[in-house]
Amino acid sequence: MARGDAPRDSYHLVGISFFILGLGTLLPWNFFITAIPYFQARLAGVNSTVGTLSSNHTGPTDAFSFNNWVTLLSQLPLLLFTLLNSFLYQCIPEAVRILGSLLAILLLFALTAALVKVDVSPGPFFSITMASVWFINSFCAVLQGSLFGQLGTMPSTYSTVFLSGQGLAGIFAALAMLLSMASGVDAQTSALGYFITPCVGILMSIVCYLSLPHLEFARYHLTKKPSQVPAQELETKAELLQSDEKNGIPNSPQKAALTLDLGLEKEPEPEPDEPLKPEIPSVFIVFQKIWLTALCLVLVFTVTLSVFPAITAMVTSSTGPGKWSQFFNPICCFLLFNIMDWLGRSLTSYFLWPDEDSRLLPLLVCLRFLFVPLFMLCHVPERARLPILFRQDAYFITFMLLFAISNGYLVSLTMCLAPRQVLPHEREVAGALMTFFLALGLSCGASLSFLLKALL
């Protein structure tokens, strides 16, 4: 708690609210990429208005390069709003940013759900879907940054709770997909139920946000001015990445980026009677200290987003048609990735290896480039150039296990090591730089996926 006279979080209602808000911020991205087979079927003109949530034995053709475009248009808004962060947040009130973003996301997802029942030709359907992806992820970027700004006045444990909610969004989407497929209803009803699920999640997020001013604990902290936040808490916020690693950050790549960014926004102005703080650190000097770690972060996400989900979502089971072939990709691609990525991030709670002075980190990061040819040589039926060398399902499952856990661990490790490589008063600048390079890595990986798709 911030002070001894602070109210208590009765029944953990504030913690639950921030957990649900964290879940809601990343539901859109995860629900879109998990439903790639549905979108591919619609774009290929399969059953006109129906489509299917599951991939068949041969796999639907990736018409319009949907996998690549949905990844790119989901990550570019993060890079854009990382650059526009300070300007946007000073011009628009916090409540407008949060509630406006939630309502816009809800309406756009309702449109996506309604399109399940509408007969739209592939071209217009692709255009509408891509526009929805862009605007939904733009609002999500604003929403996350705004909520992390609010968390700047809360005890640090609530940041971890929020991040935990974000981390479970991918697992939640994969489980929703599996339940929809296993429900036994027709394909159209199954797809409609799947896309209504995140709408319910966003509605719950809106209710949770509106309830915060009515909870004494939240009202006590959220109405404090930055200068009223105790020094001990401010120090904790500046070291948020390091403390989060000890608590196990879940799976979303965007969460760590926006977390440290709040340090720059919530830094209190020194009072005249307070001792002078160290001068503002030079961005160039801080970059010189962390450039190798930042480059490692860029390369980790470049590798991950170059093949996931653009290539991995195209991999199908080599077994004959049946239940396993239908459930293969949702389980072995999306659910497995999210679980193992979360576990990989949690490993930093127990050890940090290699340390910031070791040259093994760049080597481990570069070794992950081996996953690119490995996945491209797996069982992807729709190909024109490369052969299939790893036909059996066991190969893909093994590659995905190592791919996901290494992604989670190396992302968590690099974000944890960066603050350790600079002086205490330079950590906020280091965090802002890592924010930019994280978004840059995501965008580079999404762009590279177009080339890899063309090489198949």
TrEMBL record:
Which biological process terms from the Gene Ontology are attached to this UniProt entry? adenosine transport; hypoxanthine transport; inosine transport; neurotransmitter uptake; thymine transport
The answer on whether this UniProt entry bears the keyword Cell membrane reads yes
Q: What does this protein do?
A: Bidirectional uniporter involved in the facilitative transport of nucleosides and nucleobases, and contributes to maintaining their cellular homeostasis. Functions as a Na(+)-independent, passive transporter. Involved in the transport of nucleosides such as inosine, adenosine, uridine, thymidine, cytidine and guanosine. Also able to transport purine nucleobases (hypoxanthine, adenine, guanine) and pyrimidine nucleobases (thymine, uracil). Involved in nucleoside transport at basolateral membrane of kidney cells, allowing liver absorption of nucleoside metabolites.
Q: How does it sit in the membrane?
A: Multi-pass membrane protein
* GO MF assignments: adenine transmembrane transporter activity; cytidine transmembrane transporter activity; guanine transmembrane transporter activity; neurotransmitter transmembrane transporter activity; purine nucleoside transmembrane transporter activity; uracil transmembrane transporter activity; uridine transmembrane transporter activity
Record key words, sorted: Cell membrane, Glycoprotein, Membrane, Phosphoprotein, Transmembrane, Transmembrane helix, Transport
Top-level taxon of origin:
Eukaryota
- GO CC terms on record? apical plasma membrane; basolateral plasma membrane
In this record, what's one Pfam family? Nucleoside_tran
Is Lipid metabolism a UniProt keyword of this protein? Answer: no
Q: Which residues cross the membrane?
A: 12-39, 69-88, 95-116, 128-149, 161-185, 191-212, 290-315, 327-348, 360-382, 394-417, 429-452
User: Any idea where this protein resides?
Assistant: Apical cell membrane; Basolateral cell membrane
Q: Where is the signal peptide?
A: none
Q: Which reaction does it catalyse?
A: thymine(out) = thymine(in); uridine(out) = uridine(in); uracil(in) = uracil(out); inosine(in) = inosine(out)
Organism equals Cavia porcellus
The text of the family note is: Belongs to the SLC29A/ENT transporter (TC 2.A.57) family.
What's the protein here called?
Answer: Equilibrative nucleoside transporter 2
